[in-house]
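Field reference: sequence -> structure
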Amino acid sequence: MDAVKKRDWVLTDVTLVISGGSLQPGMTSLLGLEPTGVRNPGPSKWARPGDVDGLWSISCDEHVSRDFHEQMNNILSIMESKRTELAQLAGRGYEVTVEVYGFAGNDCTLALQPEELKRIALLGFPLRVAANMNER
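Structure field:
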């Protein structure tokens, strides 16, 4: 099954996000992973108004692979290898999510494969999907 219709395009970014009001970039030592993005708690020009949570993330985007399923596999593999640590963080009140962002052209579709949905469900963390539709 193709993730994207051939005549149209979509640019995706799959990210493991850990957030919380008291989150500090120290997640790096706890998880043993280098983030691709961090934000200290407090107001930020990059966050939604009122969002003052700290953020620690690992993204897989077009700079790693332009294939959505490769991006998803990369992030899910990281999460599966750190399942215990992520569950501990969630137990401490931090939010752990898988986030998919897509920048799409006209009439695009993006399909998750059943195996991807199963892996996400087994991890037990929420999946968030956000699309940026832009007619150019």
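Note: The chain has four helices and five strands.
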